[in-house]
Amino acid sequence: MPSTRPHTAPAATASTASTPPTRPTGLLLTGGGARAAYQVGVLEAIADIRNACGAGEEPNPFPIITGTSAGAINAAALACGADHFDRAVRRIARVWRQFHASQVYGADSLSVMRSGARWLTLLSMGWALARWRRMRPRSLLDNSPLEKLLVKMVPLVRLPRLIRKGHLTALAVTASSYSSGEHVTFFESNAPVQPWVRSQRKAARDRITHEHLLASSAIPFIFPAKGITIGDHTEFFGDGSMRQSAPIAPAIHLGAERILVIGAGRMHEPKGDTAANPTANYPSLAQIAGHALSNIFLDALAVDVERVQRVNQTLSLIPEDVRNKSALRPIELLVIAPSQRLDAVAARHVGELPGPVRTMLAALGVTSNMADVRGAALASYLLFESGYTQELMALGRADTLAMRAEVCRFFGWTDTGAEVQTKHHA
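User: That's the sequence. What structure does it adopt?
Assistant: Structure tokens below.
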């Protein structure tokens, strides 16, 4: 299991030498709702380290960008600025630094009553009554405000031109089909990539739209599914982290040989972590939901990282002349994941949620008690409030700066020891 402490290299690499800059580099941004603010802090730090090393004039450091759930939104926004990496990072950071829940979902009393309150009421009164009254709610929250935000944050109209001019090789976003049960990676690329098919997962070459991003980020039960046309029919999709058995695979299929993976939670909980100790109390619905979401968003990544490491180790045992004749190649990974429990960070900010949302979540067991880390797990995915997002961004930046040597080695940058100067503004 890779270490997630920021002062150690969290993933094994194919060699200990600096990586040649010509190897195709991919970026994987994983899911996690509001937790994706952490990714933005990491990207800010990478931009600053890049400039401190004198590499700021080099081309886009991530020609292959893949993302899932909220990570798909960040990935697409970054891809749409592939001709100016620093500027794209600043634009994304500005949104996350000034976030309010109302930009993502209806957080006023009327909106919550229309979605969440009705949903909770029907849970208690029975779905038979729902059928009688034709009151089948689609989700706990209405994320229609997110559609307006995406128009401003992700100018997808730029994407084909950036790919055509070589600023970007490929963008891929992943969603899970409720209709077919398949896990689909939609990708846009000028490279001759054949769509891949694996057990319960496949790829589809398509023009990436805001509908794809809404589908990929539709957290189950919390946000509504999104319909996407595939071939001659429409399927309804939800969050791409569901049933995602191989989150790193799309970047590899698209040609990446080095991949920076940015997680949205610690890869594993250290032994002796008091927050991870079991209690005798029966879990609240919020605890159960938080546990389920952690399974969806976090567990598959740790397993896939281990899988890549095992393949790398196996390949290292094969003679080089034999290995060169096969299609297999070692994949260099650098994993940057939070050094703190994001549930604990969320517990400090639950009180910042809009009143109607706080009231609704309280019915599920989410409290404003800062010591209630387990109860805050669910809120950690919905806390699109600037106090929380700014703290996660600061954590992402600090974790990445603590790994400066590993970052430079991964990209092949020469670390001159110059002080990192931030260009980001609140």
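The CA atoms of residues 90 and 396 lie 15 Å apart.
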